[in-house]
Amino acid sequence: MLGRYVARARQGERIIVTDRGERVAEIVPLSQEMQVLDRLVEEGRVSWSGRRPVFERGPVYSGPSASDAVTEQRKEREQGVSGVDG
C-alpha cells in the first residue's frame, strides 16, 4: 500500500498522512536540489553518503575587511571635500 503513495509522490503529488484524523506527516516529491544531487551522484561527478553535507571552508581573503575598506573610503572622501577651497 505504501508503494502506491510513493508512486504518487514520485509523480509530483503531495500526500498528507493522518492518524485518526490528525495530520502527522507528509510524503512529498524530491526537491529540485535533491533531484540534481541524485543525477550528479549517478553520473559519478559527486559522492554523497546521505548525511548532511559538510563543506570545506571557502577561500580566505587576507586583505582588509569590508568594514575597514568602507571606513578608509569615507576618510578619503572627507579629506577630498574638506580640502576644496570655496
How would you characterize the overall build of this protein?
The protein is an alpha+beta fold and 86 residues long. It is built from three helices and two strands, in the order αββαα. It has helices spanning 2-10, 32-42, 66-82, and strands spanning 15-19, 22-27. Strands 1-2 form a two-stranded antiparallel ribbon. The radius of gyration is 27 Å and the shape is elongated. The N and C termini lie far apart (85 Å). The model has no long low-confidence stretch (mean pLDDT 85).
What attributes does this structure have?
single chain; 86 residues; alpha+beta; two-stranded antiparallel sheet; 13% strand
Layout of helices and strands:
Blueprint (H helix, E strand, L loop, with lengths): L1 H9 L4 E5 L2 E6 L4 H11 L23 H17 L4
- Specify Rg, calculated over alpha carbons: 27 Å
C-alpha termini separation: 85 Å
Helix content range: 40-55%
Strand content: 5-15%
Question: Biggest sheet, open or closed, and with what strands and sense?
Answer: 2 strands, antiparallel
Which class do the helix and strand fractions yield? alpha+beta
Average pLDDT metric: 85
Strand order of the largest sheet: 1-2
* Strand runs, count: 2
Q: Report the total helices.
A: 3
Query: What order do the helices and strands follow?
Result: HEEHH
Q: Judging from the principal axes of the Cα atoms, what is the shape?
A: elongated
List segments where confidence is low: pLDDT < 50 over at least 5 consecutive residues: none
